[in-house]
Amino acid sequence: MVHQRVRLGILTIAHEARRVEFGYLRGQLELTAGNLSQHLTVLETAGLVEVEKGYAGRRGRTWITLTAAGNTALAEEIGRLKQLIARVDAAETGESG
Amino acid sequence: MVHQRVRLGILTIAHEARRVEFGYLRGQLELTAGNLSQHLTVLETAGLVEVEKGYAGRRGRTWITLTAAGNTALAEEIGRLKQLIARVDAAETGESG
């Protein structure tokens, strides 16, 4: 679930700020609105992000916040990726010998 | 393509050895034979692995080898993941301040 690349990107960006705006996320990840919405629904259903609709002046805005569970899931995925990278790097070292 | 988790695992394991046997890969990645075959077909079509059928005694065996293009694709993906991890780690440091 979290290992899906777009969703990992969403969690990473949401992790950097208290909350992130839909349009910003869309621009950063170079996604269509429909595609981003689908991934957010998956993450929201899993309890990893909260999605709030609000206003900035007259304009509708959607804000995304990482939940505590989302933060944990991101940390776990980063741990797994570090192990994978260490494995590739160890093999590189072996090759040079 | 490479960022798909199972395929990244296949490339990582193939990267560690000159060639890797289908059953070993399947056990390491905890996949069904059908699922592993599908991912190998995707990787082979993209030119990232070579799949050879042979024999070990009377038994059929399938061997997987990482190609030069596969090695490059793996290195690029590892580079992208390192950037993503650095970004998450940088945000962690910011939070503690």
TrEMBL record, chains A, B:
Organism for this UniProt entry: Micromonospora musae
Organismal lineage: Bacteria, Bacillati, Actinomycetota, Actinomycetes, Micromonosporales
Protein name: Transcriptional regulator
Domain Winged helix DNA-binding: 6-85
InterPro entries assigned to the protein according to its UniProt record, in alphabetical order: WH-like_DNA-bd_sf (IPR036388), WH_DNA-bd_dom (IPR027395), WH_DNA-bd_sf (IPR036390)
